[in-house]
Design brief:
The protein has one domain. Helices cover 32% and strands 0% of the residues. It is built from three helices and no strands. The longest helix has 11 residues.
Amino acid sequence: MFVTGVVQAGIMNGYEDQTFRPAQELTRLEMTVMIARAKELPLDPQAKVSFADADQIPAWGLSLTWQQLLKPN
């Protein structure tokens, strides 16, 4: 099953209640984190973001090195 492979690869974890919600739309943050995990980008616990809505980013999404993700290859 596709979900099992994605979970085993560490790309997706599901929600805190241990469920997946396939009918629920992904947020920009959720998609960004999945891309970063798939690309195995380094995480930086001290990362700072300057998005207008940065105050709305939950703690689990703050450690992503945003500059690394947005940098062209």
